[in-house]
Each structure stands twice: as structure tokens, then as C-alpha cells.
Design goal:
Elements lengths: L1 H33 L1 E7 L9 H11 L5 E3 L17 E2 L5 H6 L2 H9 L3 E5 L2 H5 L4 H18 L4 E6 L11 H19 L6 E5 L6 H4 L8 H19 L25 E11 L2 E10 L5 E2 L1 E6 L5 E6 L2 E5 L2 E5 L6 E2 L4 E9 L10 E4 L1
Parallel strand pairs: 1-2, 1-3, 1-4, 4-5, 5-6
Antiparallel strand pairs: 7-8, 8-15, 9-14, 10-13, 10-16, 11-15, 12-13
Helix pairs in contact: 2-9, 4-6, 6-7
């Protein structure tokens, strides 16, 4: 009888030990499950080797944003920097083919992301696929993402510029695609599953930031990582961007600096026949925080703005005024923000003289 009790005790100890081990494993799984799963999705700009992902990963870690898991069916491809390199960057892929063949469905099932970062369409542009067809493919992919996860958060890039030696028309095709992406995103975004546009085009130079007019070099990787970071960090920090301003910042400066304590710098980022892209950087040069800014100028050569981002446009003929949007109104002393726009020109494209004021 004593032996039987000893055996029972031994069995109970073994069971309790097994349960304890199971709880430890479950706890580890729960901790892992708490991490936000992010899928970098695209073509060779994202993979092969896509070293901007390594830079982005490490910047997140340095910012204390550690509960993140990059996911994908493809492994890391070098870069010489320790990082979470899982990804879905398929070299040579067309987004229209991926949508047509339902390839994303299997990738989603295998990785179960919460967030998708999509820079996709370079090969479609190179293949002269119409912009509307590319956007239809984007729509298919977003629908598949939401079927996998109804609360999927999607970051969609306005893709980096292209200037391959074998495609003289590619530069303008990229402009056409990027010009259409914000409107498409606004039409498909929902409160539960927001689609947020990330501008990867502004300030990116095919001459300085690629090694072949298409694929990023080291400086290009840095620029791509820097553009992804704010939008992704916002999601990973617990807020859910909607792609639209949510209102003025809650912080209000106690002292309002006098108008004029800011500078505005105008730069033409890219130019093509009949069109160009420009970027304006606004810097608070005062000693106190600003809760709004305004930049004005007059075009001298008939230029007309056709699209703007990160600013609110008021234009009458050649006279242009751009003010802040909700999220970039607050500028602490020495801080800067930037807005960009696309515009038409004909014959001459001189740089205007800008005036800047803050409130």
C-alpha cells in the first residue's frame, strides 16, 4: 500500500512538472504572440537583399520598439547587420501576377501578419502595365489581407523613382502610379483596417540613391528605412493611423512666438517634361514651440500644383499658400517638417521666393 502511495505521488509530481513546463512554454508563446507581426511585401526593392529592412529593424530596437516580429516565407539575405530578416520580397515579381495567381493567400496563411508594408509595382511599371490595372491588383491584395485578418493595417508606398537605361518612359509611369495611390488608398481605407500611404518618392534620387537607376544603394536603403519608420513606429507604439489627420496636437505652447520665426526651403526633387516634384522644408527658428505654420509664394512661370501631401493647399492662380495638417502642426524650436507636391510647368521652372510664418 505504501509503495502504491509512493507511485501515486511520483505520478502526481511528474504530472505537475509536465504542467509547469507546459505553462512556461505557453507563457513564452503568449509573450511571442504579443509581438506585432509585420510583413514586408514587394519585389526586389523589398528583397534581394532589401537591406533597408535591416536598418529599419535596428532603428525600431534603438527606439525601444521591441515587440515586433518581421514575418515572411523568405529568409534574410545577408546585409551584414543582425536583424529579423523574414520577408516577402520576391525579386522580379509583378504585383498584378501575384494578385492574379492568388500567391499572397498562401503567404498570409503561413505567416499571419498584423501589418503589411507594401512597396510593389516596380516591375509592373517597367512592363508598361496600366496604372488602373496595378491599382486593381492592390485592391485584390488588400481584400486578401482582410480575409486573413479583418483588422489588418496596411502601409502602401508611393514607390521610389526609376530611371533604367532600357526604359525611358518608366520615370513618368512611376509618377502616374504614385499620383493615383493616395486617392485609391482613401477609397479603400476603413477604420478597422486603415490603408496608409508612405511617400518613398520625395527626395529619392535615382542618380545618388540607386546603383542602376532602379535598385537602392546604401544611401537609398537609408532613405527607404527613414520613410517607413514614422508610420510603422506609430502602429507599433499602439496607435492606429488612418491616413487622415486626426486633429490638432493636444500639447499647446504657453507662449506664441511672433510671426516669421521660421524658414522655408524649396527644392525641386525631380523634373520631367511638363511636370516636376518639389519639397519644402519648414524649420522653426524661434525660441518657443509653434502650433501651426504657413508658407506662401507666387509662381512666376505659370506653374500649377496638381497634388500635395503633408500640407493643406490654398491656391489662386500663381499665388500659393500651404499650411500644416493636424499631425505636423507642432514644431519645437529647431524642429523641421516637410511637405511635397507635384506640379505642372512649361518652358521655365524658376524657384520662387518663399515667406514663412508660424502661430
Amino acid at each position: 500500500m505504501a509503495r502504491a502511495r509512493v507511485r501515486v505521488r511520483a505520478v502526481l509530481v511528474a504530472v505537475l512538472t509536465l504542467l509547469a513546463g507546459t505553462l512556461v512554454i505557453a507563457g513564452g508563446t503568449a509573450s511571442g504572440a504579443a509581438a506585432t507581426r509585420v510583413m514586408p511585401l514587394g519585389d526586389s526593392i523589398t528583397g534581394s537583399p532589401g537591406c533597408w529592412r535591416a536598418l529599419l529593424w535596428n532603428r525600431l530596437q534603438e527606439a525601444g520598439i521591441t515587440e515586433v516580429d518581421f514575418v515572411g516565407t523568405l529568409p534574410p539575405q545577408g546585409c551584414g547587420v543582425a536583424h529579423d530578416g523574414d520577408n516577402e520580397g520576391h525579386g522580379g515579381a509583378l504585383v498584378t501576377n501575384v494578385a492574379r495567381q492568388d500567391q499572397l493567400v498562401g503567404w498570409l496563411a503561413a505567416t499571419r501578419p498584423d501589418v503589411v508594408m507594401m512597396h510593389f509595382g516596380t516591375n509592373d511599371v517597367w512592363s508598361n502595365v496600366p496604372t488602373a490595372t496595378i491599382l486593381d491588383a492592390y485592391t485584390t491584395l488588400v481584400q486578401q489581407m482582410r480575409a486573413s485578418n479583418p483588422a489588418m493595417r496596411v502601409l502602401v508606398a508611393q514607390i521610389i523613382p526609376m530611371a533604367p537605361a532600357t526604359c525611358g518612359e518608366c520615370a513618368q509611369r512611376v509618377v502616374a502610379l504614385n499620383d493615383a495611390i493616395p486617392g485609391w488608398a482613401a477609397g479603400i481605407s476603413t477604420a478597422q483596417s486603415p490603408v496608409v500611404v508612405v511617400d518613398q518618392w520625395t527626395g529619392f534620387s535615382t542618380a545618388a540613391d540607386t546603383y542602376d537607376g532602379v535598385h537602392p544603394n546604401a544611401s537609398g536603403d537609408r532613405k527607404i528605412a527613414d520613410r517607413w519608420f514614422p508610420a510603422l513606429a506609430e502602429i507599433l507604439s499602439g496607435t492606429q493611423p488612418t491616413g487622415e489627420p486626426t486633429g490638432e496636437p493636444t500639447e499647446t505652447p504657453t507662449v506664441t512666438p511672433p510671426p516669421g520665426d521660421c524658414t522655408a526651403t524649396y527644392r525641386i526633387a525631380n523634373q520631367w517634361q511638363d511636370g516636376f516634384q518639389a519639397e519644402v522644408t519648414v524649420t522653426n527658428t524661434g525660441s518657443t514651440a509653434a502650433n501651426g505654420w504657413r508658407v506662401s509664394w507666387t509662381f512666376a512661370d505659370g506653374q500649377r500644383i496638381t497634388q500635395i501631401w503633408n500640407g493643406t493647399l490654398a491656391a489662386g492662380g500663381p499665388d500659393v499658400t500651404v499650411t500644416h495638417v493636424g499631425w505636423n502642426a507642432l514644431l519645437t524650436p529647431g524642429a523641421s517638417t516637410a511637405f511635397g507636391f507635384l506640379a505642372s510647368w512649361n518652358g521655365t521652372n524658376s524657384t520662387p521666393t518663399l515667406s514663412c510664418s508660424i502661430s
